[in-house]
From TrEMBL:
GO terms for cellular component: cytosol; exocyst; membrane. Component of the exocyst complex involved in the docking of exocytic vesicles with fusion sites on the plasma membrane during regulated or polarized secretion. Involved in polarized cell growth and organ morphogenesis. During cytokinesis, involved in cell plate initiation, cell plate maturation and formation of new primary cell wall. Residues 62-231 form the Exocyst complex component EXOC6/Sec15 N-terminal domain. The keyword Transmembrane helix does not apply. Residues 419-765 form the Exocyst complex subunit EXOC6/Sec15 C-terminal domain. The lineage of its organism: Eukaryota, Viridiplantae, Streptophyta, Embryophyta, Tracheophyta. It comes from Carya illinoinensis (Pecan). This is Exocyst complex component.
């Protein structure tokens, strides 16, 4: 098909060249309008301008002109593509016939499909309806199953709540929230659960808080009892250890038993110690229940309040500890110190258990901070109480309890060095108080003593007063009644000193120390040398004393010398020091001043008594015609007194003390004899008188020899040496060669105690029998005695030397 040709439309050209200026302006506007239309710009400004200028016709004219100019362009485009357009129209016509055939075919197919699909669609509708019903039934069954499980969980929750099993009830609530709450389709049930679950959780939290509060109240009582129990166990353990050490020391010192027996005894003690330790360990776990605390902790963990509960627990326990620090000013600390320290000990025993088994409820750092605070407070309280304390026994009681507190808590790993440092700091003050108490007791004991020999009627009295302090001189038990050589002062002072040693060791043994023997020995030295020695010395220096009382004092000092050795051995035993080490370092007798004063006082009284007998020396005939055969009267009295004295003194005085006393008395007698010859009361004497004095000295020497059963030979010779001055003087006066006195060798050997001035004075008084005041006239012309001549020469030489 060929399209018909259409006539071409020609647009008349614009006006001629002679157009006016208005037409030129119109052409410019047409150009601008065309440019805007070609650029798809907004024509609104042109339209507003045309209407505002009142010339819309011009705008219409321009638009028509533009339209006619574009029509020509369209015609040119159509003329260029008309062949293609004709072909396309042909294709569309052929396509239209195909579409008509397709349409009829589709109509036939639709009719066939409608006839076939009708019953199927009916079945499909029935199926869809049945499936919806099935889904609804399944959903209902699932909801019922969920509700049944939910009801079971709720029932278990109620059951746990009724049985106060709060943690399990809380776990049931958590299960409801996580597993059932989102699956419940019933809005009413869901709202009910959302309301009740927080209420039940709040109820559980209140219940747990109340139970925890009750536990906080109860644990204070439990802590106090637990502290008492732990400190009591520490005391029992210390006693067991001390008993074991005592057994060991006895086994070491007991040489009469075989080695096998000693080992058997130690093993038996070890088994007993282990059994007691097991008993103590079992008792330590009683009445100590942390279940309420851990239940509250776990429940708060489940509620998500773990950190808050930790802080709450720590603050409450810290407040309890601060409350335990309070020391009542109305009650003496001696009465309240055990409760004070027991509360603190129990508190930290509980905290140690919580730290080890609480699963992080409290940290180690927090426990350490609490312990540092407690140690600081306890040290402050001890410093204050010790500074005001004036009684040693109170001091020791508190120290013992503090040291036991340290032992008990050291087992749990708590450092107690600061507490022990406080005890060490007040060691000197305690011993000063202890020395003061002992001084008072010793003065009272000395004042109550009658200084009479102690009578013991029963064996237990002997054991208590003699064997307990190792005062016996023999291992043989005497017959009863037994009269001891000492008075009641000795066992009384021994008991005081032994108590001092035991109290000192008890104070020094804090902290498990075993190297404190030197310190105990130092304080024991002070007790003996400063307190006991001074008290005895002052008592001895009192003016009223008889010989029997003085002799008893000297005997007491001898017994105290043995007792002092016991004190140091006892201190070594209690300090764990072997006795052989103590025996090696023999010490000077600490009561030597009192002992010397007692012996000097006894010697002085005996000398005074002897002086009464020595006054009879004035009755001696110094110009006797014949020497006396049995000694002078004064000496016979002295010998009788000395023999009586020895027979009495040897019953109570040790041999060495009696020897020293007799030495002093004999030396005094010798000095009195020499002094009497030297004095003005004797103007002259003859050889017969000197021979009488020689007999007197021989009697004294014989008295010394008669003491051989009491003293060894060396001691008897020392007694004779006490008479050396008078013996050497008499020997010189009776010597046939008195000039030998001038020989240094002979003088040193035979006359070493003589003073040459005394020799000169006494020798000048020696006269021959012919020189008697009323001598016969027949003897005046007799030849001078060579002995007298030699003596005169000696006197002259000695005078020349002087």
């Amino acid at each position: 098909m060929h399209p018909s040709t259409k006539p071409r439309r020609f647009v008349a050209p614009a006006g001629s060249a002679a157009a006016s200026d208005d037409r030129a302006d119109s052409a410019d506007k047409l150009l601008l309008l065309s440019s805007a239309i070609c650029n798809n710009e907004d024509l609104g400004p042109f339209i507003r301008k045309a209407f505002s200028s009142g010339k819309p016709e011009t705008l219409l004219h321009h638009l028509r002109h533009f339209s006619r100019s574009k029509e020509s362009e369209i015609e040119e485009v159509c003329r260029a593509h008309y062949q293609d357009f004709i072909l396309a129209v042909d294709d569309l016509k052929s396509l239209l016939s195909d579409v008509d055939s397709l349409k009829s075919s589709l109509s036939d197919s639709n009719s066939s499909l409608q006839s076939v699909a009708g019953p199927l669609l009916s079945s499909l509708d029935d199926f869809l309806e049945a499936r919806v019903v099935s889904q609804n039934v399944n959903l209902a069954l699932q909801s019922l199953a969920t509700c049944i499980r939910l009801i079971e969980v709720c029932s278990r929750s109620n059951y746990h709540l009724s049985n106060n099993n709060l943690y399990m009830a809380l776990k049931c609530l958590d299960c409801i929230e996580t597993e059932f709450l989102d699956k419940i389709h019933s809005s009413t049930l869901k709202r009910m659960l959302e309301k009740k679950i927080p209420e039940i959780q709040a109820h559980i939290e209140r219940k747990v808080s109340k139970d925890f509060g009750d536990w906080l109240v109860e644990i204070r009582v439990v802590s106090r009892n637990l502290g008492h129990l732990a400190i009591g166990q520490a005391s029992s353990a210390r006693q067991l250890e001390e008993d074991l050490r005592m057994k060991q020391r006895q086994a070491e010192e007991q040489t009469r038993l075989s080695l096998r027996d000693c080992v058997y005894a130690l093993r038996e003690e070890d088994e007993e110690h282990d059994n007691n330790r097991n008993v103590l360990s079992n008792d330590s776990n009683s009445n100590f229940d942390l279940t309420p605390l851990y239940r509250a902790y776990h429940i708060n963990q489940t509620l998500g309040l773990e950190d808050r509960f930790k802080q709450y627990y720590f603050e409450n326990r810290k407040l309890q500890l601060t409350s335990d620090f309070q020391v009542s000013s109305m009650t003496p600390f001696l009465e309240s110190h055990q409760t004070f320290f027991a509360r603190i000990a129990g508190f930290f025993i509980v905290e140690d258990r919580v730290l080890r088994t609480g699963g992080g409820l409290i940290s180690k750092l927090e426990v350490e901070n609490l312990w540092e605070t407690a140690v600081s407070k306890m040290c402050s309280v001890l410093e204050d109480q010790f500074s005001r304390m004036q009684t040693a026994s109170y001091f020791l009681l508190i120290k013992d309890y503090v040291s036991l507190l340290g032992v008990a808590l050291r087992r749990y790993g708590y450092p107690v060095d600061a507490l022990l440092d406080v005890l060490s700091k007040h060691r000197d003050k305690y011993h000063e108080l202890l020395l003061s108490d002992c001084r008072r007791q010793i003065i009272e004991a000395l004042a109550a003593d009658k200084f009479e020999q102690m009578l013991m009627k029963k064996e237990y009295e002997y054991s208590m007063n003699v064997l307990s302090f190792q005062l016996q001189t023999s291992d043989i038990v005497p017959a009863f009644p037994y009269v001891a050589p000492f008075s009641s002062t000795v066992p009384d002072c021994c008991r005081i000193a032994r108590s001092f040693v035991e109290d000192s060791v008890s104070f020094m043994s804090y902290g498990g120390q075993l190297d404190f023997y030197d310190a105990v020995k130092k304080y024991l030295d002070r007790l003996l040398s400063e307190v006991l020695d001074d008290a005895l010395f002052q008592l001895i220096n009192t003016p009223v004393h008889g010989v029997s009382q003085a002799m008893q004092m000297a005997a007491n000092m001898a017994a105290m010398e043995r007792a002092c050795r016991f004190f140091f051995r006892h201190a070594a035993q209690l300090s764990g020091i072997p006795l052989r080490m103590v025996e090696r370092g023999r010490r000077q007798f600490p009561l030597s001043r009192a002992r010397d004063a007692a012996e000097d006082m006894l010697s002085g009284l005996l000398k005074a008594k002897v002086d009464g007998f020595m006054t009879l020396i004035e009755n001696v005939n110094w110009m006797a015609d014949e020497p006396p055969q049995s000694g002078n009267e004064y000496l016979n009295e002295v010998i009788i007194y000395l023999e009586t004295l020895v027979s009495t003194a040897q019953q109570i005085l040790p041999a060495q003390v009696l020897k020293r006393v007799l030495q002093n008395v004999l030396s005094h007698i010798s000095e009195k004899i020499v002094g009497f010859l030297l004095g003005d009361s004797v103007k002259r004497f003859n050889v017969n008188a000197i021979m009488g004095i020689d007999v007197d000295i021989r009697l004294l020497e014989s008295f010394a020899d008669n003491q051989a059963p009491i003293f060894p030979d060396g001691d008897v010779n020392q007694l004779k040496t006490s008479l050396a001055e008078s013996r050497q003087l008499i020997n010189l006066l009776l010597s046939n060669h008195p000039e030998n006195f001038l020989n240094p060798v002979i003088r040193e050997r035979s006359y070493n105690t003589l003073d040459y001035r005394k020799v000169v004075t006494i020798s000048e008084k020696l006269r021959d029998s012919s020189d008697r005041l009323f001598g016969t006239f027949g003897t005046r012309g007799a030849k001078q005695n060579p002995k007298k001549k030699s003596l005169d020469a000696l006197i002259k030489r000695l005078k020349d030397v002087s």
